[in-house]
Amino acid sequence: MAKTILITGATGMIGGYLIREITKRGDRYIAVTTNPLAAEKKLKDAYKIVGINDILSLRNEKIDAMINLAGANLGAKRWTKAAKKEFYDSRMNVTGSLIDLISKMDTKPDVLISTSGVDYYGNTGSKDMYEDAPPANSFLGKLTNDWEQAALKAEIFGVRAVIFRTGFVMAADSEAVKKLLMPVKFFVGGSLGSGKQYISWIHIDDLIAMYMLTIDNGNIRGIYNAAAPYPQTNALFTKHAAKLLGRPALMQVPAFVIKAVLGEMSTVVLDGRRAMPKKILDAGFKFRFEHDAEAWKDILV
User: Fold this and answer.
1) Could you tell me the residue ranges of all domains in the chain?
2) Fewest Cβ atoms closer than 10 Å to its Cβ: which of 168, 201, 292, 299?
3) 123-129: long-range contacts (C-beta < 8 A, 24 or more apart)?
4) Is the CB of residue 132 less than 8 Å from the CB of residue 165?
5) CA neighbor of 135 nearest in space, from 150, 118, 152
6) Using an 8 Å Cβ cutoff, are 263 and 271 in contact?
7) What is the pTM assigned to this prediction?
């Protein structure tokens, strides 16, 4: 039977891939957005498009699953005090609205799947990190932890809550991927900082498959690392991409330069973390792309 899936952040990159898979399966989706007019131009096949301020109009709708992707882009601007407030509030407010909707629905959804990030762990070097680790004492550590705890409140109302701490998403049309590859294409690519920091990454196809498995498998609940089983150092990650592009990757951008340009945002690229996916593997998930070289080949060739 076809399912109805509510999505926040549907107009984003991950949302686009998710919608394609949902509609391919014969399911339908409701987009909840802060900008309904813009969404209507982009999401022609949506079952419904609802503004976030009108979300309670869905209280009588039969919704099978909710997927929460909404949040202001962390890489879009320098991390001023105002920007950090926007990053935090955009996530907490939308998640709070979803919990409010759930609390008022007579027929609850089966599952709320909410996004988080591996930045939860902070700079943990070469240590393998699992879901029971405490959050980092940092802005992103607090943001991700608070965001997760807000989404987990769905369990109070008998709704299965699933959190994906997502790694660097590898997709051909990802703006983050394009930014990473730009210096490589102009023959000035290489490692950032020491280059020894680990990147936890995931191919977009595996991430979408993880969402689909979670919708269909009622045994999946709680917090999971959404990252491939083999993290890679920044230097080799870039080198593998450069090789496919026929470019060298010999440059090294010193950490102090990155910090001067990006400010506090530099932690995203200079901190290393190895978020391990043992828990989702134990739940039966199979990765198509386990190694970054395979993923680069898929999106670049």
Assistant:
1) 4-174+200-230+273-289
2) 299
3) 123/197, 123/267, 123/270, 123/271, 123/272, 123/273, 124/272, 124/273, 124/274, 125/197, 125/198, 125/272, 126/198, 126/272, 126/274, 127/274, 128/274, 128/276, 129/225, 129/273, 129/274, 129/275, 129/276
4) no
5) 118
6) no
7) 0.96
Q: Are 39 and 11 spatial neighbours (Cβ–Cβ below 8 Å)?
A: yes
Question: What is the CA 69 to chain-centroid distance, rounded?
Answer: 7
Q: From start to end of the chain, where are the E strands? A: 4-8, 28-33, 48-51, 65-68, 111-117, 128-129, 160-166, 168-170, 190-192, 198-199, 201-203, 222-226, 232-233, 251-253, 274-275
Q: Answer whether 129's CB lies under 8 Å from 135's CB.
A: no
Task: Collect all residues with Cβ–Cβ distance below 8 Å to 48 and sequence separation of at least 6.
Answer: 30, 31, 58, 61
User: What does the pLDDT look like over 133-178, one tens digit per residue?
Assistant: 999 999 999 999 999 999 999 999 999 999 999 999 999 999 999 9
Whether residue 74 contacts residue 91, with contact meaning beta carbons closer than 8 Å, is answered with no
**pLDDT band, very low/low/confident/very high, at 47 (cuts 50, 70, 90):** very high
| Alpha-carbon dihedral sign for residues 203, 204, 205, 211 | positive
Q: 3-class SS at 117?
A: strand
Task: Give 131's DSSP letter.
Answer: T
CATH code that applies to domain 4-174+200-230+273-289: 3.40.50.720
Nearest CA among 30, 277, 79 for reference residue 166: 277
The number of residues in the chain equals: 301
Looking at residue 15, its pLDDT comes to 97
Q: Distance between CA atoms of 239 and 253, rounded to whole angstroms?
A: 14
Write out the two tokens for 105: 């629905």
